[in-house]
Design goal:
By secondary structure, this protein is of the alpha/beta class. The chain contains nine helices and twelve strands. It has a domain at 1-106 and 213-290: 3-Layer(aba) Sandwich (Rossmann fold), CATH 3.40.50.300. Helices cover 32% and strands 23% of the residues. Strands 1-2-12-11-5-10-9-8 form an eight-stranded mixed sheet, with helices on both faces. Helix 6 (194-209) links the parallel strand 9 (182-186) and strand 10. Helix 3 (122-133) runs parallel beside helix 5. The longest helix is centred in the C-terminal third of the chain and has 16 residues, at 194-209. The protein starts with 5 loop residues before the first strand and ends in a 20-residue tail after the last helix.
Length: 290
């Protein structure tokens, strides 16, 4: 693999050439999320290669890329569900590989499908979550969350009686109970009606205003354009560009009113780092693809 080259742009956007960057200037700044040289291999297939970036409190980072870009793998490694092959991931300064319990105390992850316990009521979900995270004031905090999410009248209801949107709200209440500072969303609007979509967008904005660091992965570019402050574009496991959304737009836009969709296609077409790569023969080979 060749030496890393990163073309610096006046706006602060980084366009990565085919000789990849393993240490981004952004990653070296540190942040609530700090990823450096992150690589994940499944056998000889490299799903994500030499990814470095950082995200600060109050930022909403849109994680975007075509199918197979490495978005889900990146989220799973950020949450500690699967380990990276190489590189470091720090949440609030804590290395998730070295101290996973402490790192995860700062974290909430919301997958595209809510995972609930069918035999626990809405309120019992909060009690169970509070015990796991040792939240002392969970009753006050829990009732505030149910009020904010407009499901306070469902406290004694079982998940089977909830709509898809209500289940999503319950998942949010459980995930936010311990006041996480790092919040990851994977396709958060899946199955929501218009009211649920508006509520979800408002929730993400409010959390960012309160100082949380958010990563939002979605194929809905209109959603990212509406709520994100920054964007990270991946293609075939490699970083194409990252930075403030408006800087990325200015760099790749063909015209003043270009949408994020226009920018996305321009950025991924311009990138020369598009070919899937194979792991080196001496690379550490982890477990099979989950």
């Amino acid at each position: 693999m060749g030496r890393l080259r990163v073309r610096r742009l006046p706006s602060g956007v980084r366009l990565v050439s085919s000789e990849l960057a393993s240490q981004s200037p952004l990653g070296s700044l540190g942040g609530m999320i700090d990823v450096s040289g992150f690589t994940k291999c499944y056998g000889k297939f490299v799903a994500v290669e030499d990814l470095s970036f950082a995200a600060q409190p109050g930022e909403i980072v849109g994680l975007v890329g075509p199918n197979g870009a490495g978005k889900t793998t990146t989220l799973r490694c950020l949450t500690g569900i699967i380990p990276p092959t190489r590189g470091t991931i720090r949440l609030g300064g804590i290395d998730i590989a070295q101290d996973p319990i402490e790192a995860k105390r700062r974290l909430a992850f919301f997958p595209d499908e809510p995972r609930l316990f069918e035999h626990l009521s809405v309120w019992q979900h909060l009690v169970f979550t509070a015990r796991l995270y040792e939240v002392a004031d969970y009753e006050t905090r829990g009732r505030e969350l149910l009020e904010q999410l407009a499901i306070s009248g469902k406290a004694d209801v079982m998940p089977s009686e909830l709509s898809r949107g209500m289940k999503q709200k319950l998942s949010l209440a459980c995930g936010l109970l311990h006041s996480p500072r790092v919040i990851l969303f994977d396709e958060p609007l899946t199955g929501l009606d218009p009211a649920g979509i508006r509520s979800m967008k408002d929730t993400m904005r409010r959390l960012a205003q309160q100082g949380a660091t958010i990563i939002l992965s979605s194929h809905l570019l209109s959603l990212l354009e509406e709520v994100c402050t920054h964007v990270l574009i991946l293609k075939n496991g490699r970083k194409v560009a990252d930075g403030p959304l408006e800087d990325v737009r200015r760099r790749f836009a063909d015209h003043a009113d270009a949408s994020l969709e226009d920018v996305f296609f321009k950025a991924t077409e311009e990138s020369t780092a598009v070919a899937p790569v194979k792991a080196e023969s001496n690379a550490s080979i982890p477990e099979s693809r989950p």
